[in-house]
Amino acid sequence: FEKGTSAQSGWYPTKISKETLPMDSTELRQSILKHLEFSMGKDLVHASLYDMRMALTLAVRDRVIEPWFRATRATYAAQSKRVYYLSMEFLIGRLLEDAIMNVGLTEAAHEAVAGLGFDFETVLADEPDAALGNGGLGRLAACFLDSMSTLGCPAYGYGIRYEHGLFRQSFAQDGRQVETAEDWLRQAHGWEFERPEASFRIGFGGSVAENGRTAIWTPEDAVLAKAYDTPIVGWQGKWANTLRLWGAEALTAFDLAAFNKGDFTAAAAPEALARTISRVLYPDDTTEQGKELRLKQEFFFTAASIRDILRRFNAEHSDLSGLPSRVAIQMNDTHPAIAGPELVRALVDESGMEFDTAVETARACLGYTNHTLMPEALERWPEELMSRVLPRHMQIIERIDESHAKAHPKRNVSIVENGEVKMGELSFIMANKVNGVSALHTELVKDTVFAELNALHPGRIVNETNGVTPRRWIKGANPRLSSLITDTIGAGWEDRLERLVELEPAIADKGFRNQFAEIKARNKRDLADWIERDMGIAVNPAAMFDVQIKRFHEYKRQHLNILETIALWQEIRANPGAGWAPRVKIFGGKAAPGYVMAKEIIHLINNVARVINADTTTRDVLTVVYPPNYNVTMAERLIPASDLSEQISTAGKEASGTGNMKFSLNGALTIGTLDGANVEIRDLVGPENFFLFGMTASEVVECRKTPDHAARAIKASNRLGAAIEMIEAGAFSNGDTEMYHGLTQNLRGHDYFTVCADFDSYWDAQRRVDAAWGDQDNWTRMAAINTARTGWFSSDRTIQGYMADVWKITPMI
Ligand code: T68
């Protein structure tokens, strides 16, 4: 590289290497054939689908190397600050199509692959989903990686290379969720580079010896953390960052002495034990109690990342007091909260820094993102467990707690309380910025979970409303809509999504609306074909596609939706000629394996679907489908084909939501509560283009003060009462009156998530939806307005916010 003359920093290379020149399909074809032969060891005649997919992956990966190296060198040359995004989850899905799109090879790849006798779409579909996450939190991390690379923000994502990602879901047992292990790494992972040189020994347990100001921790067990790097290329290949995932291995892979004695099981034991740490993604959403393995996983990847960060810093700088000007570490929820104590430990015990200075230094590097208000979902670890697994860290936590208490004697906040270590408090105290993920959520964070700490540290809490990457969620998932956008407002909206407002004048034009409607209709026909192929259910593509896809949780209220479905079915049966708006209700999502109530709701939905879909009298106007194993790829299929987006959580419970944004951008109307980012969506699209219902967050709090709020609501609503009674009478369980006892009793009794109290309001809003559907052209107008006005929800905007408010980093491109 030659140093350029860019006014900005002088690092920008003026010479563009051959690799960045546009590639044609002939060149790409050569590259694919080369990889078929030399990487896969096959000739074209014998190449399987897998061989072709891998050869294409490697050919595309070659094109990502140049921006990747360029970005790394530029960051190094400019001595730029880097972001380290620490996350237990990166729900990246498939990578091939995204990378092809970002390096501008879509047409060339299509042509080259077809020319070699393979169907391009089939090749793309052969890639397994990297399901290294549960839901929103993990998908947000993946969107952030894309945006950081697009914006030229020097960054590393750090996480765990789970051998088995999130479980695979089926409904094999009469509509009950059945979980099996996901095996995405059974085939070679074409994107990653193994880095044996970047390995760290991570210890657990043992003892601590005082040594003057510092301490010496001698762990009892240890595993090896080995790095695997995946380049993440941004839009138009201008920049690429690294996703570095840690795999766990035994320090000594194999006990040869045991083997030689014939004890083969004992011989393999050390390896098996070590590997459990990166074996599975903890199949938890928000309610399950933590386990020792999870704490070890959290420490494992956090400690390896901190060591890697310090190694990189020390290679370039000699004075650790400069760490905060070079390093911004973001903790994605509390899962990496041990980063604070671990960084302090490294600075004090390994570099001899004074304790208070080390705490200040660590704090100046750390940021913490909160994703939940539910106190039960904020991690707490038993003090006993923490002291046993991480004895030195427990000492450091206690000392941080003491000095914080000393500095604020009048306030009653502590990290360690009633024998538990509260990771939310630890994260807050160790971070220089704490952020919520939507405007409403951030206000509630200030007023509820962290009210005391907010009073002590005013200004520390900031808001960064979530966003989604338009490259994957519009350009990749909805190519037809993308073409219409480009035809209407010109090229270049993909990394300047605020430009979608330029669509607005066109919406007045009937021709534009017809095109918009036709795109939706075609996407729906594609989805209907897939549903028919995959599930054997014929759905009417002209019906309204009403979609609720997300993790199953009581606060997300899939049961409110299914109760309304039952009531609607009854109403249609009673009044078949009333001109009902035809609907296909689509559900998708997994429940945490230990979450009994969520699994009961899944089971009920499948049984309601079975009964309703068998009713020939209502078949034309109401169908319920619930395809199993919802994942990123399925979301890419469903969202562009949706008319109605269900965002119906109990107000005050959904921190933000990000699916809600994807739907609006793709021209679906929302039926929703004033919760999370729904509030901001409604503000942007206008209340007349949003179907609002339900209590506000403060009304919910008030409502709960009336202990019989559910009973009253049921009494006041014949429809709701009848729907619950049908379930109780066994209408969906072959006459079994006990099957959904847990669910119906909960609704009639406690109903913490105010399903009953919100039911009538939801019903009414659904009927407003029906009425609106009756005027198709006006529906299209509202849908197009949703697209035009929601460009603000690009994750590029979110990342720009983090860069300015939290990380204090300027972009490199
Ligand atoms: C989600 N949280 C929020 N948590 O529910 C959602 N939790 O409102 C928000 O849009 C999204 O984060 C992004 O900010 C989660 O997804 C988890 O998945 C999770 C996993 C393990 C433990 C706790």
Protein described:
By secondary structure, the protein is of the alpha/beta class. The strands form six sheets. A nine-stranded mixed β-sheet has the order 7-10-11-4-1-12-13-17-18, with helices on both faces. The protein has a six-stranded parallel β-sheet with strand order 21-20-19-22-23-24, sandwiched between helices. It is globular, with a radius of gyration of 27 Å. The protein has three domains: 16-78 and 95-128, no CATH class; 81-92 and 133-167 and 177-193 and 230-245 and 284-466 and 799-807, Glycogen Phosphorylase B (Rossmann fold), CATH 3.40.50.2000; 470-793, Rossmann fold, CATH 3.40.50.2000. The relative contact order is 0.10. Helix 22 packs across helix 31 (755-774) and helix 28 (709-716) crosses helix 31. 47% of the residues lie in helices and 15% in strands. The site of ligand T68 has 19 residues, from helix 6. It catalyses: [(1->4)-alpha-D-glucosyl](n) + phosphate = [(1->4)-alpha-D-glucosyl](n-1) + alpha-D-glucose 1-phosphate. Its cofactor is pyridoxal 5'-phosphate. It comes from Roseinatronobacter ekhonensis. One of its GO terms (biological process) is glycogen catabolic process. GO terms for molecular function: glycogen phosphorylase activity; pyridoxal phosphate binding.
Please give the order of strands in the largest beta sheet.
7-10-11-4-1-12-13-17-18
Q: What structural category do the secondary elements indicate?
A: alpha/beta
Choose one word for the global shape. globular
Head-to-tail CA distance between termini: 16 Å
Major beta-sheet overview: 9 strands, mixed
Architecture per CATH nomenclature, i.e. the level-2 architecture of the largest domain = 3-Layer(aba) Sandwich
Number of domains: 3
Per the CATH scheme, the topology name of the largest domain is Rossmann fold
Rg over alpha carbons: 27 Å
Q: Could you tell me the mean pLDDT? A: 95
Small-molecule binders = ligand T68
EC number: 2.4.1.1
GO molecular function: glycogen phosphorylase activity; pyridoxal phosphate binding
Cofactor: pyridoxal 5'-phosphate
InterPro entries: Glycg_phsphrylas, Glyco_trans_35, Pyridoxal_P_attach_site
